[in-house]
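Morning run. Coffee first, then this:
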Amino acid sequence: MASPDVAYASPNDGAPPSQPPPPPSDTIYLKFLASNAEAGSIIGKGGSTISDFQSRSNARIQLSRNYEYFPGTSDRIIMVSGTFDEVLDATELILTKLVNEFYAEDGEEAEPRSKFRLIVPNSSCGGIIGKGGSMIKSLIEDSQANIKISPQDNSLNDRLVTVIGTLQQLVQATNLILSRLSEDLHYIQSMGPAFSYALPYGVPNYGPNGGAKKLQNKKEEISDSVTLGVADEHIGIVVGRSGRNISEISQISGARIKISERGDFIDGTTNRKVTITGSQRAINVAEDMIMQKVASASSPPPPLAPEN
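And here it is:
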């Protein structure tokens, strides 16, 4: 479980130091947590949902692997990047799906309330809290959501900002918080690698609660391996330029993917060996995505239009 939440700053929370020059990009990042079930919903069958959300928002959505969790939790890390509006659009699409799928119940009159946990660098939390808690109070009043910030842990560079409310309140609170973060020039520079603190499943995880916490979800410990045969001429489309495609497939599915060296074929064929390792769900997602890449490479070109 994540550490207890506190709403306001400690005496050490002050204004950030003098600002460095702005980064040469207008890219904004937003990190948050999702359970394995929620991550699976965001990915969708064969990566269909995450591809749809990226296409509709123009944002990039990345997930930590299905055995890599935020310290002290059993939740995966989602990172959305793009322009301010693109990130907000993608986040609203994700929140809408999660609220409808995991919190809404038939026959329930009241609009469901759910929890959204953002990951924010320690250096940027002061701007959200404000002097004497003035800013976080304003954010709560303007969004009507409940907003709390976890205590600072010296072993981590980040804290969790928990937002609780209806879908509309979550979206509004995220908009307001991201607006504050986008004004903080330290924020983007503090983001670091997307999942630098994600530890392999079952490794002692020193999180906000102090001692090591070994995760106990036995189902996720099950790791299988499947080998596919992919024609040598189609390996390029699976790998992608500079490895972009295979990296994305691995990131979305949570599976590890290894391709045999050139000339190392499945016996009696000219098919290269593509070995997929991970949970059964991760393997299925990765296999679907690889087959889609191969199918797109194998499809004949559309017929030419007849000349008039």
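Residues 94 and 159 are 21 Å apart (CA to CA). Good start to the day.
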